[in-house]
Amino acid sequence: MIETKEISEKQKDYILTIEEDHFRDLKAIDIRPGKLTKTISAFANTVGGEIYIGIDEIEVSGVKTRQWRGFADVEAANGHIQIFEELFPLGTDFTYTFLTAAGQIGLVLQIGILKTKQIVKASDGIPYIRRGAQSLPVETAEKLTRLQLDKGVSSFEDNTLDVPLDFVSDSLTIYKFMIEVIPTTEPIPWLKKQLLIKTNHPTVAAVMLFADNPQAALPKQSGIKIYRYMTKESVGIRETLAFTPISVEGCAYEQVYEAVAKVTEIIQTIKVFTEDGETTIHYPNETLHEIITNAVLHRDYSLASDIHIRIFDNRIEVESPGRLPGHVTTGNILKEQFARNGAIVRLINKFPNPPNKDVGEGLNTAFDAMKKLKLKEPLIVEKENSVQVLIRHESLASPEEVIMKYLESNPSINNRTARELSNVGSENTMKQIFYSLRDKGFLEQTPGTQGRGTTWRKK
C-alpha cells in the first residue's frame, strides 16, 4: 500500500517552483512510459533523485507557469508504477508517496530514486546518465565503459599492463612482503593465485601493490601531488604557492605513509591566531591518515590524473580521481561500503601495519577524530570526475561563542581578530555579529574607538 500524504500550502508552492536540476524533475501525468524510463535510468545511474508526476507546465504570453494536475485516484497511476517494478524487480532502490493538497486536483506521485549498484537501462535498452536537468544517453562503447567504471560494475584494477612480469615479481617491494607475510611460497605462483597475473602480464592492482615504481607503468594516474597555498581563499593560485608542488610516488602502501608524513610536516609550519595567541595549527592524525588512505585505495586508476592534496591556511583539500562508485553517495558514504578496487583493498590489508586496519570504518574514524578536537567534520563533495574531501580547521563553536571565550582572557577584540578566530570571511557579517551581541547586552563598543580602529569589550 502506497502512503498518501496531505501537504501544506507552503509545501505545495515549493513543489510548483522547483527548479529542475541534477537531482529533481517534474513530469505531467501524460508522460509516455518510454520517456519516463529515461529519467528513471538517468537518476539511478548517477546520484539518485526525485521525480514528481502530476505537474503541468504551461506557457501564457511567453511566461511559463506550473499547475498541479494529479492522478484521479491511486489506480490511475498503475501504469507508471508498473514501469518502476519492471526496472527494479527486487522492489528496492526507490520509494513512492502520493501527495494531496487542499484545493488542488488529484494526487501527485512523488518518487525517490536511489543510486543503484547495477546499471539501469531505459525501455529502449539504453542506459542514461543525469547531467544538470538533462537525461543523456550512454550510446557508445566508450561511454558505456566509463559508466561501468564509475558505477564499479567493472574495475580498472583488473586490467593488465604491457610491462615485463619481473616489473612486479622481482621487485624489492614484493620480496619484503613475501618474507614478512607469506614466506612459504614464491612471488609468481602467489600472484597467479591472487589473480594478479593474467596472460603472463601483471594487472593494475599488482603493479600498484608490489612494483617499486608503479608510476613508470601508470604515468600521470598513480601518484600524489601536494601543494601548499598561503591563503584562505577558495581557490589557490600560483602567486600563493609556498613552493613547487611535491610529488609522492611508489607503491600504494608507501604512498599513504609518505603523503601523511609530508602533509603533517607542512601543516606544522602553519600558524593560526587563537584566543590564547598565535599557535601551530593541528589536525588529527587519524583524520589525515584515513582520508588519504581512502583516496589512494578507492581512486579510479583509469583516469589520467594524480591525487591532489592542497594545504591552505584554514583547510586541507584531498581530491581523488573518479566519482563515488556503486550505490555510494555523499549522503550515505559513512554507512555504505563499496570497494571500487577490491583486490587492492583486500591485499594491502595483509601488509604489516596496514593503512586500512579497520576496513570500512576509515571515514567514520576520520569524522570522529575531528569532533574530539571540536572541529567541524570533513565535507565530501562529488565533482564531475572526482571526489573532494575538505578537512576544515573551523571550530564547532559559533562566532558568538568564540568571541565571548576570547574576551574571558583578553580586554577587547576587533573585527579582524574575530574573523580570524571564527573563520568568518566578511567584515560586514562580523559587524552584524558584534551588533547582535551588543543588542543582547553582552558587549559594548570600547570607548574612544571608532571606524577601522573599533574594538569591543564585555559589558
Automatic annotation (TrEMBL):
Protein name: ATP-dependent DNA helicase RecG
Keywords attached to this entry: ATP-binding, Helicase, Hydrolase, Nucleotide-binding
Superkingdom assignment: Bacteria
GO molecular function, one term: hydrolase activity
Organism: Chryseobacterium shigense
InterPro entries: RecG_C_sf, Schlafen_AlbA_2_dom, Schlafen_AlbA_2_dom_sf
Keyword ATP-binding assigned: yes
Residues annotated as domain Schlafen AlbA-2: 20-138
EC number, UniProt record: 3.6.4.12
EC supergroup of this enzyme: hydrolase
